[in-house]
Amino acid sequence: MEKICVAVRVRPPAPELSPENGSSLWKVEDNRISLHKSIDTPITTASYAFDHVFDESSTNASVYELLTKDIIHAAVEGFNGTAFAYGQTSSGKTFTMTGSETDPGIIRRSVRDVFERIHMISDREFLIRVSYMEIYNEEINDLLAVENQRLQIHEHLERGVFVAGLKEEIVSDAEQILKLIDSGEVNRHFGETNMNVHSSRSHTIFRMVIESRGKDNSSSDAIRVSVLNLVDLAGSERIAKTGAGGVRLQEGKYINKSLMILGNVINKLSDSAKLRAHIPYRDSKLTRILQPALGGNAKTCIICTIAPEEHHIEESKGTLQFASRAKRITNCAQVNEILTDAALLKRQKLEIEELRMKLQGSHAEVLEQEILKLSNQMLKYELECERLKTQLEEERRKQKEQENCIKEQQMKIENLNNLVTNSDFKRNQSEDFIISRKTPDGLCNVNDTNDVPGTPCFKSASRSFVVARSNNYSGLSDFSPMVHSLGNVADEDTWMKLNKGFVADLDQIQFTPSVKCQPTPLSIPTTECPRESYKEVEDLKSQIELLTSEKDSLQVKFNEQVLLSNKLMQEMSELKQETLTMKEIPNRLSESVANCKDVYKDVIVTIKSLIADKESPTANLLLGTTEITTSLLSTLETQFSMIMDGQKTGSSIDHPFSDQWETLRVSLKNTTTSLLSDAQAKDEFLNCHNKGQETAALEEKKLKSELTIIKERYNELEKELFSDKELLEASRESHEKLIKEVKFLKEERDSLDRKIFQSTQRMRVIASDKENALKDLNVEVKRRRDMEEEIKHISIAFATRHKSFVSFHSEIKSKMQKLTTQNSKAP
Ligand code: ADP
Ligand code: MG
Does 89 sit in the ligand 1 pocket, CB within 6 Å? Predict the structure, then answer.
């Protein structure tokens, strides 16, 4: 068990700053760094000790010598090793790792040192392969082969965690590697920010795989394989300072998030073993790749760089806290010896031995050299083949997943079809319903609305469908996996947490789990697969077209329904108007009766005043008639008020009533007028009463006949009242009917509203489903095209390689034959 080696390096102040701004507040003494308020006034709380502390005047040479050299030497011995630079942007990470012309950085020095070391070890044979990658926006890109983008991380029993498809160059000397690094540098993502004109926007990992075995055949057969990682991290950045926006901002978010996860991993690892729970290596690609270096089988050193300027004090403190925690991590490094064929060197050795055996006796050293060269080449091909194999396996898996996707899509489309059929069925029902409303009797069955089926099955189906889609597609793409979860990562708050060593709640900022790509089985001819896929895609397209037309027809029907509903609304408002007019009828009738009563009373009062003899039969008759008529009118009034109280509504037939009452009033007036004239005649008659008794009998007879007339008139009035009553009854009935009709129309309108709402919802769901399906389809088509392209490339590459391999074999064969013949001729 050994601790991670942690060092701090303070870079010189930026030259553009004035001397007082540039004067460092950090004081370095031996392996201790402390913060000073002013010169010689240390702030006790801000003093840190590390394995090494390098001040502003330090060189990369001294950093290499003191910090990294041992790890590099150990790597040559068979230990895994990792060195990485951590710190805020512009603090000197890249300067430390890459360096300058005059002062090369750790990577270059390591490369040279590895080969120097190898040359010093005479009893072992080495095979070195290198790779160079970057993690940009949480995607792994190959810096040695630009076409290898978005590579995936895999785990292998013997190889451990590895990046599939990453180009590994077999190298024979340091200069070759340095050239490769230079070519890789060109492909790195840099960008300009306020803080660094040449800011690294990605984490870069330079990796050397060192295989070695003893030259002495009698010694152990074991092969040592060690991995050396030299990492230049992108710097954490405070958005306010870098002034990042757009792409830079997005990059900053990814950078900060992955560094935060690195911080979390370091935090957890720095806890005592007992407290160590789950270490979230898998939360970012960086920590996943560095997993063996952090808390695993590796010798690791971290160089934490800080900027000396006062305005960077917070970031510097954050970096020092990170360093303090990292110092507590212990690793368990051991030499990696393997005995299986997984070691490339072992296989290569076997083949070379075979050739050597065949060549035994021959002194053709040149030829041996040639064969060695060819063997190296063969190994390269083999590596390439391996890479292709993994790629093909990937493709195969992708294909399977794609097939599943297509199946699911088909199911979804079927679902959609069912839904559309369902909605058609409901629509037809609703149309039937509307027609049934217009049956000849004009009355509709209110209960019909209750029979209209609801849409629960549709809704539940669509919801589950959407959920299924999101579940299936959230992980379908490997690309830009955390855009949505990054909302707050780069903000000030997060920055503060990052620099204060805050352990983030990873549940909140978790990456979307990456998803494996689609495979293409090698055994299936590449031309057939796309054809099938095209067919499926075509099917999908036609189904979508079908859906679109269904949607359009639904739209048309929906519009019709809206029109119908508008018409119904208009009819309803007309009916309401009529109902209002009807409501006023009893009121008016009652008023008319009251008027009649008043008029009648006036008339009676006048008549009474004209009758001199209050006891005369005429007066009695008048009194009787008055009582009857008054009670008649009161009855009428009561009737109307009863109607008013009972219904409080009316109908439009008020004119006939008014006419009736007008007739009634006129007839009453006529009666009173005739009574009045009779009374006057009687007065005259009384005046000349004394003239003779003989006319008395005649007069009585006349009065009797008048009484009969009045009685008849009364009967007539009664009849009229009766007919009025009937009329009123009829109007009441029609009024009731109208109320029912209105109620009915209201319900119909409500049900229509509901239906319109439901069909709108349905249409929205269908439209969104269609959109999603289209999107998926496009993604699918694009992916398939990409895949085809890739397969083509692979097939071509494979064919070419196969060809050259065959030719190489035949070449060897012919050379062997030549040698054999030479050998046989030699003696
Ligand atoms: P980072 O990679 O941390 O963002 P860089 O390594 O790009 O920062 O450094 C920013 C600037 O500071 C560069 O111009 C670099 O040359 C300079 N610099 C950093 N460290 C040193 C150093 N120790 N000596 C001289 N210049 C340095
Ligand atoms: Mg940098």
Answer: yes
What secondary structure does DSSP assign to 558-598, as a single string?
HHHHHHHHHHHHHHHHHHHHHHHHHHTHHHHHHHHHHHHHH
Ligand nearest to the CA of 89: 1
Query: What is d(CA 500, CA 480) in angstroms, rounded to the nearest whole number?
Result: 28
Per DSSP, helices labelled H in 148-242 are 174-186, 239-242
- Nearest alpha carbon, ligand 1 atom 23: 11
Q: Return the SS3 of 617.
A: helix
> What is the per-residue pLDDT across 148-171, written as a single tens digit (0 to 9) for each?
999 999 887 767 788 999 999 999
pLDDT greater than 80 at residue 325? yes
User: How many A from CA of 307 to the centre of ligand 1?
Assistant: 9
How far away, in angstroms, is 166 Cα from ligand 2 center?
23
Of all atoms in ligand 1, which is nearest to the CA of residue 89? 4
If you measure from the C-alpha of residue 58 to the centroid of ligand 2, how many angstroms do you get, rounded to a whole number? 18
Ligand 1 closest atom vs CA 60 = 23
Tell me the pLDDT of the chain averaged across its residues.
75
Q: Judge if the beta carbon of residue 94 lies within 6 A of ligand 1.
A: yes
Q: Which letter, b or e, does each residue of 649-661 get, where b requires 16 or more Cβ atoms within 10 Å of its Cβ?
A: bbbbbbeebeebb
Neighbours of 580 (CB within 10 A): 12
- pLDDT above 70 for 189: yes
Banded pLDDT at 61 (limits 50, 70, 90): very high
Provide the token pair at 727.
Answer: 């009329």
pLDDT at 333: 80
* Mutation choice for ligand 1 from 89, 95, 241, CB with most ligand atoms inside 8 A: 95
Q: At what angle do helices 654-687 and 617-647 cross, to 10 degrees?
A: 170
Residue nearest to atom 11 of ligand 1 (CA): 90
* pLDDT tier, 674 (very low <50, low <70, confident <90, very high otherwise): low
Which of helix, strand or coil describes residue 753? Answer: helix
Output b/e per residue, 783-801; b: 16+ Cβ within 10 A.
Answer: bbeebbebbeebeeebeeb
Distance CA 428, CA 411 (A): 25
Nearest ligand 1 atom to the CA of 305 is: 3
Judge whether residue 433 has pLDDT over 50.
no
* Alpha carbon distance 216, 121 (integer Å): 13
- 233 Cα–ligand 2 center, Å: 7
Calculate Rg over the CA atoms of the chain.
52
| pTM attached to this predicted model | 0.48
Distances in whole angstroms, Cα of residue 469 to Cα of each of 399, 473, 781: 19, 6, 17
Which atom of ligand 1 approaches the CA of 56 most closely? 23
Would the pLDDT of 205 be above 70?
A: yes
Q: From ligand 1's centre to the CA of 382, what distance in Å?
A: 41
200 touches ligand 1 (CB under 6 Å): yes
Among the bound ligands, name the one nearest to the CA of residue 315: 1
Ligand 1 pocket residue status of 87, Cβ below 6 Å: yes
- For residue 61, the ligand closest to its alpha carbon is 1
Helix axes 585-610, 694-825, angle to 10 degrees: 170
Question: What are the tens digits of pLDDT across the range 458-515?
Answer: 333 333 333 333 333 333 333 323 333 343 344 445 555 555 544 433 333 333 333 3
Kindly report which listed range (247-251, 438-442, 533-537, 671-675) carries the lowest average pLDDT score: 438-442
HEC string of 247-297 equals HHHHHHHHHHHHHHHHHHHHHHHHCCCCCCCCCCHHHCHHHHHCCCCCCCC
Assess whether the C-beta atom of 90 lies below 6 angstroms from ligand 1.
Answer: yes
Instruction: Please state the atom number of ligand 1 nearest to the C-alpha of residue 232.
Output: 2
CB 631 within 8 A of CB 593: no
State if residue 95 touches ligand 1 by the CB under 6 angstroms criterion.
Answer: yes
Is the distance from CB of 266 to CB of 503 less than 8 angstroms? no
**Are the C-beta atoms of 347 and 123 separated by less than 8 Å?**
no
